[in-house]
Amino acid sequence: MTTTEINQLDAWIDANFDQEVQFLQALVRVPTDTPPGNNTPHALRTAQLLQAFGFAAEQHEVPAQVVSAAGLESITKLVVRRKYGEGKTIGLNAHGDVVPPGEGWTHDPYGGEVADGKLYGRAAAVSKCDFATFTFATRAIETLKRPLKGSVELYFTYDEEFGGELGPGWLLDKGIVKPDLLLAAGFSYQVVTAHNGCLQMEVTVHGKMGHAAVPDTAVDALQAANKILTALYEQNTLFKQVTSKVKGITHPYLNVGLIQGGTNTNVVPGTVVLKLDRRMIPEENPAEVEANLRQLIADAVADSAGITIDIKRLLMAHALAPLAGNQPLVQALCKHATAVFGETIEGSGTPLYTDARLFSEQGIPAVLYGCGPRTVLESNAKRADEHIDLEDLRRATKVVARTLAQLLE
Predict the structure, then answer these.
(1) What is the crossing angle of helices 327-341 and 390-407, to 10°?
(2) What's the pTM value of the predicted model, to 2 decimals?
(3) What H or E segment, with its residue span, contains residue 267?
(4) pLDDT in tens, 81-94
């Protein structure tokens, strides 16, 4: 790719940047809170906006009964195919669903407000911003005055917050998409080549409800649950002795994110439910992690008379490990990101888990890069006042456009 072509791409992105910001604002203004997970309206609005650019979006709706069984309301995924000639197909995937806004906002979470060079709103950073990055990078390469070899496909999906199986997983399982390389939405300056896995489980502790005045007539499920919690949290001390070899990833971690139980203050709890999240480093075996965790929970209440437990797996997201074929994408992204940002940008891992793993499991080399701050914390992702720096959006769009143009030479 020549210097003239690089300058042409950058100039087009600069000239159309206000339109890119407006595109992102329009996406933020359609809520995609998951739960409840009513995401089809956002997909339809996105398709309408894409049509204005001449991008026809295939609409793939997941059957209602399947969506309902997953605890969601509606999912429609979009696929945009731009074929330029014979050659490799590069898929670009970003997800539109996001956790509800929560408390503490000083900006309208659905306003798309721009203030002090930042665009605020739920999903502005994770990852509606990359709907914009990927769309405008693709539009930019189509202005080049030379033929491109291969195809670019945009996958705008929903269900990442619930694991991705009804998002990219559904498209892959149905054979609707199968790119040669996959670029997934990013959330930092780094080019992410690996990430943690995640096991989520629901543990129901059954005792016997009774009056607090005569506790001997009951079996306290909360006391038993406390034994489980103590055993679980002791694991985090042990996990710190385990170190991943992947840059950017430290050690495994376990979090109990939700506890439900009891009926009233004067009633001995008969049932307590715990929901836990176990992050797995790439070196761990997911089956062994689950088996060990189930055994740990059972052992914790083995001497608790009258207590039984049910354990249900909610999610098993495997870690993303680098596949050998990802090097052209990694090298191009690092090269152009370093040039655009004026600092060394390298490949690294992240402790998060993403939809990219679903492509990797199908043998498709997947890398994460897109619009993001230096760290996830800076963007307030999944917290109040989530935002994206507009200069990061501009620069990331240039990096992706340059990378696509290079790979499609």
Answers:
(1) 140
(2) 0.89
(3) strand 267-268
(4) 999 999 999 999 99
